[in-house]
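Researcher: I've got a protein sequence and the SMILES for magnesium ion. Could you write out the 3D structure of the bound complex as structure tokens? I'd like something to compare against our soaking experiments later this week.
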Amino acid sequence: MLRANHRPPSILGDDPFSHALKPSPYETDYEKHSRLEREIEAKRISDLIDDEIRRDKERFKRSKQDVRLLLLGQAESGKSTLQKQFQLLHSPASLDAERASWKIVVFYNVIHAIRTILDGLENWGHLVYQNLNQHWPNSSEEGDPNTPGGRSSITQLRLKLTALVAVEQVLADRLSGGLKITGGGKNGVYVRSGWQVRTQIHTTRNKGKGKARSTGNTPDDADQDELLVDVARKLQIARDDIVSLRNHPAVTKLLEKKKIRLEEWSEFFLDQINRIAERGYVPTIDDVLHARIQTIGVAEHTFVVQHNSRPVQWRLYDVGGARGQRHTWAPFFDDANAIIYVAPISAFDQYLEEDPLTNRIEDSIQLFSQICANKLLKNVHLVLFLNKTDLLRKKLAQGTRVSKYITSYGKRSNDYEHVSNYFKTHFVQVHRSNNPGQRVLYVHQTSVVDTKTTQTVIINVRDSIFRGYLKDAALV
Ligand SMILES: Nc1nc2c(ncn2[C@@H]2O[C@H](COP(=O)(O)OP(=O)(O)OP(=O)(O)O)[C@@H](O)[C@H]2O)c(=O)[nH]1
Ligand SMILES: [Mg+2]
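Model: Sure. Here is the predicted complex with magnesium ion in place.
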């Protein structure tokens, strides 16, 4: 059995989000009235979402002759990214047409990363200053947080970046439509499918002309969106400061000590900041694949595949993977033909955002065992993607030891082959012990941001799912 270490208590703390949501004991009548109004609005949005989920379920039931594929797995495992790869393979023009609408997500990801770094410096900076004192007794003033000059440079950077960081919440509100989700972790911005249309924008071009709102889907529209124009300008001004902050020795130290944790997409976008901050920036397909936004509920995507020159409709269901979202999956189980379960095997040193005590690999294995044991799913074609292998390789190359987080890993060799095989063995074992029938488990090691390799795997998986589908249809 796989045993994981609990998270060190020093990293734990109260969830600041739920704390912030408590009404103040000094609330005035006016404040109480506005709070209650906001709560009514939140309930209205939540009811709308419930209605949408109900309608999706009804559509799901009506579409029995189509191939139905569920993408399951914990939050951040890569389900929506895999969905984008399906879209890229079967409907590349539609993903290309969406590129401009991802600009707001990329901007949000960048600014969220900057705030994460600034918060980390605020909370843990004192540790690094002491540490750097010991290591760099003779270093020069510039950029060295050991010296009064260096410390003030962090203070200056914080000041210069204040205006940019202040728009984080505005972007989050635009993306989520003001929707807040409980039980989903403290940093999440959640979206339902079709968010590109729902986050319609006021354009300067349309202002005062009584025109309908623009969809924000073309580069032109994004260029006219007041909020995006403002954020783009702030990014251009702050570009050098962002680079200085990212490369600051204090930040490097805190990242090494894991006091600041930058998610993979944050690192990706911060490293590309010069390109993103350029005038007229439009996200590339690679940016779209890296952009991170959490899925809420179950989003349906359809596409047509030519099998033996016959068009077959596929319905792909991309689910929200956070614990608070998993109850929405079950209604889609009874008619599913296939599941791709996505497990991020790079996450051995990470903990669930929604439950900071639980190791993410441990959670992924537990969830997989529930899927395997579910009677409604006993005949589905089951595919396992051991995902984020690129990040696993990177972490191991940087010297992160698996046994520090997964105690049962013991003294095994800390290289990619041993580590990936160890995780694979556990997933296969879980399937075997929860599989009274003879269902086959198809396993692939993937990095779903890598288009070339992922497309090959998708074609292989898709054709094998379709063969199983035809076989089942012949038996009915
Ligand atoms: N480097 C790397 N990044 C990945 C890989 N797979 C996914 N990501 C990134 O991980 C982040 C999370 O991926 P998503 O596809 O949004 O995760 P999800 O499973 O849909 O998450 P929820 O919607 O919250 O359930 C995105 O920024 C992706 O670009 C991978 O194999 N390698
Ligand atoms: Mg998703």
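Model: The radius of gyration is 24 Å. Residues 102-290 form one domain.
Researcher: Great, I'll pass this along to the crystallography team.
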